[in-house]
Amino acid sequence: MFSSRMQxxxxxxxxxxxxxxxxxxxxxxxxxxxxxxxxxxFLKDFDLDALRRYPDPLASELRNHIAAKYGVSxxxxxxxxxxxxxxxxxxxxxxxSCHGALLFPRYSYSFYPVYCDFFGIRYQKIDLRADFSIDxxxxxxxxxxxxxxxxxxxAPTGILLELDQIVELLERYPSERVVLIDEAYIDFGGKSAxxxxxxxxxxxxxxxxxxxxxxxxxRLGYAMGSAPLISALFSVKDSFxxxxxxxxxxxxxxxxxxxxxxxxxxxxxxxxGRDYLTAELRKRGWNVLPSHANFIMASKPGVSGExxxxxxxxxxVLVRYFDIQGLKDYVRITIGAEDELKRLxxxxxxxxxx
Length: 354
Ligand SMILES: *Cc1c(COP(=O)(O)O)cnc(C)c1O
Description:
It is a single chain. The protein has 12 helices and 13 strands. The protein is of the alpha/beta class. It has a 7-stranded mixed beta sheet, sandwiched between helices. The chain has a 4-stranded antiparallel beta sheet with strand order 9-10-13-12, with helices on one face. Helix 7 (163-172) links the parallel strand 5 (145-151) and strand 6. Helix 4 (82-94) crosses helix 8. The longest helix has 24 residues, at 260-283. The site of pyridoxal-5'-phosphate has 13 residues, from helix 4.
C-alpha cells in the first residue's frame, strides 16, 4: 500500500497547537498581534467572484511589491505557500550530494534535516562556538560541500550573525554553490543580506510573512536572489504545483507589505517585550542568550528545560523545550503581548522564585 519512500519519512514535528484549554501560547514564534487592520477592511469588501478563478501563477502584483520594498527587481523575487515551501523548493533546486554535504549549524531549524532526508541530500552539522554563535570559518573550512544554509538570526538560539560576517562567508565560499540565508526573524533588529544579492549571484535570501507580519495563517513566504536562482525555483514550483499562493494570500501580502506603520509599531512592541522579559529573567538568575528574534532561549541553573516546560504548562503557559543534547537546559519562549509576558513573569516567580 505504501511506497518505499514513504516508509523512510521522518516528518518535522511542529510546536503544539493544543485545543484542550486556553493557554498563553509562547511556543511557536507566532506574532501576538493581529496583522494590519487594512486586511480586515479589504476582506469586508472582497468580491467573491475572484475566488472562481485560479490565482496568478506568477503572483506578479505581489512580487512587484516585494521588489519595490526591498530594492530588487521582480525577476529577483519568488513567493510560495509559507517559507517552508520556498525552502523545500530551494533544497530541491540547489542542493544534492554530488558535491558533498549541505552544511548547516549544529543547532538550527529542525526542518532542514527533514528536507535533506526527503530529497536524499547529505548534510553535515557544523558546531557553533561555546556561546552558540556561528563561526563562518567552520563553514568555509569544511570539506567538500554542496551548499550552506542557516537562519539569521539563528533559531532556536536567536543569535544574530553580523552582515560583515556574511559578506566574508560569501567572499570565501565557492561562488558556484548556493548560500541560503533564512531571514525568518531578521526584522526584529537584524540587518538583511538582501542588499548583497547583486554582488553574489549564489546568495538566496528567504523570508516569511509568519513572524514579523503576523500572517502565519495566511501562509506566505518569499525569496530574493539572482534571476537564475529565481528561475530555478519557478521550474521546481511548476513541476509540483502551479498555484501555491492563493488569491487571498497574494492580496493580503500586498496590503501587509505596504503598511509600514503597523509593521514598525508591532516590531517595536515585540522588541520592547524581549528586553522586558530578558531583564526580568536575568534578575531572577536565569541565563538568557542575547536574542535578535521574537523569542528568547533561556535556562535556569539546576532546572532542566523539560521541567521548566512542564511547570509552566501546568500553569497555563506553553513554551518549547528541546530534547537535544546540548539544548536540554533551555526553553525557547516566544515574545508575546505585554499582558502575556507579565503573566509569564508572575508564573515564573511563583514556580521558581528568584
Ligand atoms: C518559522 C520559520 C520558518 C517557516 O515559516 P513559514 O513561512 O511559516 O513556513 C522558516 N524558517 C525558520 C527558521 C522559522 O523559524
